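Run log // design_07
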């Protein structure tokens, strides 16, 4: 067994450091989807914690007015507004425009199928969310050919933890506020309350304090 230990910089608080693992996955995803240019029309699918962190990452990189977040749950759509990113927030049924890049954070096959249909010429779908291994994605090969579409897979965070910590440093002051991200801290004895809040969409992530 190999145990890896990373030194947390003094300016990072422990509760922010808890986000270094998902942010290390985002760092790998960012490498996979680049180049991402200012002005690209981007769709983020799902407003759980991963979708919210992707939205913050795009904002960090200066992509401001051209991002749309798609989320079916009203409670989660309300949560997005508290981040102050000034992004468009829509339910999936309201999506009509075309996008250059779609990042799926839901793992939901129908949501990905919809995203593919909304991609413009040269559009790309990033499959970031973890789908059920038995889920199937139905696409039209002719549309892939005609529009020159690309599908990009992202598999967790190979050797990227240092990049995740670097993102925590860059994002902590502006973006990693637990209240705005909808993250709640629970004791282990409150695990039922935590799971219930997640299912209802009242929070985006549960963190357990030991």
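design_07 sequence
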């Amino acid at each position: 067994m190999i145990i890896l230990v990373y030194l947390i910089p003094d300016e990072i608080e422990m509760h922010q450091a808890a986000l270094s693992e998902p942010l290390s996955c985002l760092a790998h995803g960012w490498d996979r989807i680049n180049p991402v240019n200012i002005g690209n029309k981007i769709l983020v699918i799902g407003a759980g914690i991963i979708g919210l962190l992707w939205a913050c990452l795009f904002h960090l990189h200066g992509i401001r007015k051209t991002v749309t977040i798609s989320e079916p749950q009203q409670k989660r759509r309300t949560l997005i507004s508290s981040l102050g990113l000034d992004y468009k927030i829509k339910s999936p049924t309201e999506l009509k425009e075309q996008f250059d890049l779609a990042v799926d954070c839901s793992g939901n096959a129908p949501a990905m199928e919809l995203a593919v249909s909304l991609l413009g010429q040269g559009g790309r779908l990033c499959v970031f969310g973890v789908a059920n291994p038995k889920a199937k994605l139905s696409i039209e090969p002719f549309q892939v050919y005609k529009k020159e579409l690309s599908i990009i897979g992202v598999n967790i965070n190979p050797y990227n933890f240092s990049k995740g910590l670097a993102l925590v440093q860059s994002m902590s002051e502006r973006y990693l506020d637990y209240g705005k991200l909808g993250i709640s801290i629970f004791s282990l004895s409150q695990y039922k309350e935590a799971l219930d809040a997640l299912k209802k969409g009242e929070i985006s992530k549960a963190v357990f304090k030991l």
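The chain has nine helices and eight strands.
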